[in-house]
Amino acid sequence: MITIKDIAARLQVSPSTVGRALADDPRISAAMKQKVQEVAGEMGYVANRAARMMRGVSSNLVGLVVPDIRNSFYSTIAHALSKCLEQEGYQLTLSETDDDRMTELRQIRELSSANVAGIIIVPSAKPHAETIRLLGMTPHIQLLRKHAALSDQWFGIDDAQAIYLPTRHLIELGHRRIAYIGSLAELPTGAARLKGFRDALASAGGACAGIEELGAPGSREFAQDALRRVLTLPEPPTAVVTGSVLHTFGVLEELLDSGVSVPKQLSVAGFSDEPAFRWWGPGLTTVALPVSELATACGLWFVHRMKQKVAGNAPYSAISPPTLVVRGSTQPPGASA
Amino acid sequence: MITIKDIAARLQVSPSTVGRALADDPRISAAMKQKVQEVAGEMGYVANRAARMMRGVSSNLVGLVVPDIRNSFYSTIAHALSKCLEQEGYQLTLSETDDDRMTELRQIRELSSANVAGIIIVPSAKPHAETIRLLGMTPHIQLLRKHAALSDQWFGIDDAQAIYLPTRHLIELGHRRIAYIGSLAELPTGAARLKGFRDALASAGGACAGIEELGAPGSREFAQDALRRVLTLPEPPTAVVTGSVLHTFGVLEELLDSGVSVPKQLSVAGFSDEPAFRWWGPGLTTVALPVSELATACGLWFVHRMKQKVAGNAPYSAISPPTLVVRGSTQPPGASA
DNA sequence: ATGAAAGCGCTAACAC
DNA sequence: GTGTTAGCGCTTTCAT
């Protein structure tokens, strides 16, 4: 392995001169820098990160902490961030939490000890106190979910709107009994989505009844069960809105299995716009979320923040708006479609 | 930050004793180890990786190098590996190549200089010579694709079989003109899949004509165009087999857009089993690939290999078998289904 | 404008 | 069984 010393020996100068030249120190003559650059390139010098880190410089590692990378939401984010950060010489590391606070803590511990440059995290519902403490010592940005005790830097979507839009759409179509199958309110996103649902109902001035089924956002089974429950109610809803990607998958599966006719018997609105949603039955009406753009914005901001020497702790929030994509799965109640 | 010295000072012993106790060195008394463990835990000691790495120990980073994490194939792999490696204290880093050899080279350079413990890679078609050289210096395992110049350790699926099965299935249904829309033969997987297609045709003893359309495995557009071309042939095929996940997506989209009736006008068999394939039209006949199992096996092997002090370079290949999942999209030609 | 030297936290060879 | 010491490659005073 070529070290700074080797270059120094070759150029008959001291290691510190080479170090400074490489660091573009203003005290070094342009001529010297030139020569050092040349020889370094020629000899194939690669800086030893470990040694740098020992001197307090943080690594080029950026930790991405998400519930489950198989969720297209998060793989989209990973892709966009990876692209963004790679250009600036950062390396993305992947940690999955399963939405479990203890797993989350372990991962954060791991990242702290690896001296990561920063962490981009989709926090769990109730991060452990130690998690909060550790994150407090590391530059971090929250994605999608926003926990009050963590960084004031956050990139998310307008979750309330993401549910308000489809619910409102159904109300306008004339539905008066609407079910919402979505995430627990203990998650900040869950709470906002639920609020979106309730606000939309309220906008109908009490004319419209809501049925709420809340469960873990990662559980497809919960959504299947919930739909079954809701459909066997004495007065079943005429429409259902889902509040997470996996809940949408669960509901779609269950509808196929149970042979409910959509939109004739039931209108359905989904969450997030997977390519396959176009195919489902008559096409699934859904809210499209600018996840990729959001992640890119987050990545750019992260890089920007890292570049300024001073601690860039200024609060910053970016809220991306969802858009409604209307397809065949929503119709006026009892329409003969 | 708590260091080994702090613990030593507190216990009135030398730093090396503490270091050895922490490393479970046989020369240290059990009593001492006990005390050190205790105090370390109490003081919240976290080993400084940078310092360790400076002493030549490789990092706990494992590089995962894939074309695109948004592909469910690769996110499934990332998930399984992450689970496996995390338990052993490894941290997974994510690098995307876009199937571009220069990007791949950059990523591998990055990983080498980060002193990763190992690399798990889905290599591009023709890795750069430098990529091969660098990988030669790092423990690595090939996943899915196998390049001859790289490690002899490889975990993949039986690609030939993955296309043979659906093609044979179509032949048995009575199809005599079958199109294959799949990956370029320059990729090892592409070549194997194409072979599977041809072998299946050959098994029909010349009774069956094949139409081949080969393109980049990551290009949905290619598949859409290819399907369009194939369907406007003077003698269009009565069935189509796809040879990559994204090609399948492309074909399915195009079929919806063009209003071709499946399986009446055309039978279709897909690649890999995405949840949404169940929903597509009459349900998509497809080959299920044990990707998650494969990745887990790879992860276990990696850990095993890292554990033995000696260079574990013994060649090892594991080939996982695909299985055919028959749904409504394949029927005898001209069936009134 | 450049050099010398100390030291980051840890490990390992060498004492005792 | 435990202590001493040197040194990994780099940055960073402090000299010159």
TrEMBL record, chains A, B:
Keywords: DNA-binding, Repressor, Transcription, Transcription regulation
Molecular function terms, GO-annotated: DNA-binding transcription factor activity; transcription cis-regulatory region binding
Entry-linked InterPro entries: HTH_LacI, LacI/GalR-like_sensor, Lambda_DNA-bd_dom_sf, Peripla_BP_I
UniProt domain HTH lacI-type: residue ranges: 2-56
Superkingdom to which the source organism belongs: Bacteria
Pfam short name (any one): LacI
Keyword Cell membrane: no
Alphabetized SUPFAM superfamilies for the sequence: lambda repressor-like DNA-binding domains, Periplasmic binding protein-like I
CDD domains: HTH_LacI, PBP1_LacI_sugar_binding-like
Protein name as it appears in the record: LacI family DNA-binding transcriptional regulator
